[in-house]
Write a structure and sequence with these properties.
single chain
Amino acid sequence: MATHNIFDALNSLKDIFGPISNVVNLAVYLTFPVVGYSACCGGGLMIYMVLHIKFHVYCISHRLEELSTRKVCDYSKMDEFHMEVRSDLKTCIRCHQVIQIAIRKLNDAIYLPFIILFLIGLIVLVGVFINSTLYEIQAATDYVFIVHYLVISSIVPAALIYVAQTLINEYEKISVNLLNCSWYEWNSTNKTAMLMFLQNSQKLVCIGDRNMIHMEFSFVPKGLKFLWSTSVFFIQIVSPRK
């Protein structure tokens, strides 16, 4: 697989600019780091937003862990105990509502960019796979291009899927820590708030669309299967023409 098999436009530039085509080709090559930087920054920004939400989920989970260790020591101070529990529950419920709104806004903001990033990565991976299968790698620069494409098209989405899965795992701890609380010692008002909070916390959280592209580990086998099927399909089309 020679370099011109990947970048056919460079041959056209050679025909157009003639003697100075090397200078133009250099300018084209210099744009590659900029494209890679833009792709990594976009993915990094999405990763940062997911990690920011995960931090607030961790704060709720940690606060509930502290609440689970709080028990009645002096029954003469039951009213103070119930007021402290009510205050902590209100804080956790309020933060949980903000997190749910943030996740909905995050899905609206990054779902389309993630689809575009996924499709671009799919095209690049299929192209690299087809060229590596059908053509012989001749130049050392081809290996540089292949690694460059794999980093942009694979590592950034994989990192985003990983941090989204850690967010889901941390979110599931909320209901577990809530059930570990000594709710049987609470008054009816706190028990009612706890049940409503438990019901809302058990709703599945998803970054993306669960019916299409969702950023969690269960999507990885589906994505790899689709990548393999697409690559085999195009190889069967291209092979007779080679």
